[in-house]
């Protein structure tokens, strides 16, 4: 590894570490946010007195004239989240952790969630920037994929395992 690459990587790691102090949270509370940034997907983590969930929302922006685009990613970190409203039912396949195959589960299409704190990380590949802000509110709504994600991660925090039907219960036609 070149020295310049090592310095860049160390600066990135320091910026990640500094987020905890910047927002006054234990560093472990930010693990779901960092995991979503580094590995993609939604994550959850529980400390003795604090549970956090990260939920990812992706939006593709594409210019038909220039034929250029990018995917804007928003990652929400919710501290001590709870779903207060659910709307609709979506049947979908999910794979998680060390499960051997995906499960057929039911998730809400739309949710309203409350949390003690909500942070938002925006990753803009086109601008080459990652912005993190405290949303200064305690309630947020998600629909579609982020709604499935928060329901999945809260199920982990409450029950540890995801409940659903085995993939082999589906039939080929």
TrEMBL record:
Recorded GO molecular functions are: peptidase activity
Keywords linked to the UniProt accession: Hydrolase, Protease
The Gene Ontology biological process terms listed for this entry are:
proteolysis
Q: Which residues cross the membrane?
A: none
Q: Where is the Retropepsin-like aspartic endopeptidase domain?
A: 32-133
Pfam hit, one: Zn_protease
Q: Does the keyword Cytoplasm apply?
A: no
Q: Which InterPro entries match?
A: Asp_endopeptidase, Peptide_deformylase_sf
Name this protein carries in UniProt? ATP-dependent zinc protease
């Amino acid at each position: 590894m070149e020295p310049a690459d090592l310095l860049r990587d160390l600066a990135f790691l320091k910026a990640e570490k500094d987020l905890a102090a910047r927002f006054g949270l234990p560093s472990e509370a930010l693990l779901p946010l960092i995991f979503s940034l580094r590995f993609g997907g939604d994550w959850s983590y529980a400390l003795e007195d604090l549970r956090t969930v990260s939920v990812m929302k992706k939006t593709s922006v594409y210019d038909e004239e220039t034929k250029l685009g990018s995917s804007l990613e928003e990652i929400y970190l919710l501290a001590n989240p709870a779903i207060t409203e659910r709307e609709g039912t979506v049947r979908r396949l999910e794979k998680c952790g060390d499960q051997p195959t995906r499960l057929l589960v039911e998730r809400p299409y739309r949710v309203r969630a409350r949390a003690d704190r909500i942070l938002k990380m925006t990753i803009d590949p086109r601008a080459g920037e990652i912005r993190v802000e405290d949303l200064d509110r305690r309630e947020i709504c998600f629909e579609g994929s982020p709604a499935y994600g928060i329901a999945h991660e809260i199920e982990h925090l409450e029950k540890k395992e995801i409940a659903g039907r085995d993939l082999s219960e589906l039939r080929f036609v």
